[in-house]
Specification:
The chain has helices at about 5-25, 45-50, 90-105, 125-135, 150-160, 200-215, and strands at about 35, 40, 60, 65-70, 75-85, 110-115, 140-145, 180-185, 190-195. It has about 220 residues and is an alpha+beta fold. The chain has one domain (about 30-215): Glutaredoxin, CATH 3.40.30.10. The strands form 2 sheets. A 7-stranded mixed β-sheet has the order 4-3-7-6-5-8-9, with helices on both faces. Strands 1-2 form a two-stranded antiparallel ribbon. The longest helix is centred in the N-terminal third of the chain and has 24 residues, at about 5-25. It is globular and about 45 Å long. The N and C termini lie far apart (about 50 Å). The relative contact order is 0.17.
Length: about 220
């Protein structure tokens, strides 16, 4: 004879498991957080996310002569990279790929782009403005910034973990180079790393922004 109590017990177990799963989905991020240059992914709850690495305060000048600080990007999703205007090869490819991101989110005020010049001594505001006009960079949407070289290199290496030679001791006299693009959330946490010269990575970036907007 079938014991009805077994069915009731099994039903309760299923209900508990489903409830736990839904609760985990509700409180855990869909995209990981990154806390170090090893880029080890961490899936955290909203509460735990406040304890992980965040981009510190900064102040630079963009192609329109506007002062850009961390507050400019608070509450926004930001796509970040490093480049220089005289770069003959990969920087142009990277910039063209970022144009796809700009196009995908040009009407979305919650998404911004931030590109730091790694040769600020030659990339003046006027030079950045000309570069922006050449590539049809949208003012207010995509900020190309210059500033103090030591400060740019420090935030690149210590905050964004951007250098591809992180295994070596670096300072502002060592040229910074990277093809990485970083996805930063509304609270200044690193949520994604992508190769800026690879189209499939750009497609993943565009998709991940949509995921991040749902948090």
């Amino acid at each position: 004879m079938i014991d009805w109590r077994q069915f009731v017990f099994a039903g309760l177990i299923v209900s508990v498991l489903v409830s736990c799963h839904l609760n985990a989905d509700k409180h855990s991020a869909d995209l990981p957080f990154y806390n170090s240059s090893e880029f080890t992914p961490h899936w955290l709850s909203e509460k735990d996310a406040d304890t992980i690495h965040a981009i510190p305060h900064f102040s630079f000048i963009d192609q329109d002569g506007q002062t850009i600080t961390r507050n400019t990007f608070t509450g926004k999703i930001t796509v970040v990279n490093f480049f220089f205007t005289r770069c003959p090869g990969n920087c142009k490819k990277l910039t063209n790929n970022l144009l796809s991101v700009q196009s995908a989110y040009k009407d979305d005020n919650n998404v911004l782009l931030l590109s730091h010049s790694v040769t600020p001594e030659s990339d003046s505001i006027a030079v950045l403005k000309k570069y922006a006009e050449e590539y049809k960079v949208i003012s207010g949407k995509w900020h190309l910034v210059t500033g103090n070289k030591n400060e740019i290199y420090a935030i690149a290496r210590k905050a964004y973990f951007a250098d591809e030679d992180m295994g070596w001791k670096q300072d502002s006299t060592t040229f910074l180079h990277t093809e990485n693009i970083l996805l930063i959330d509304k609270k200044h946490h690193i949520r994604g790393i992508y190769k800026g010269t690879i189209p499939s990575d750009i497609n993943n970036l565009i998709a991940d922004i949509k995921t991040l907007e749902k948090e």
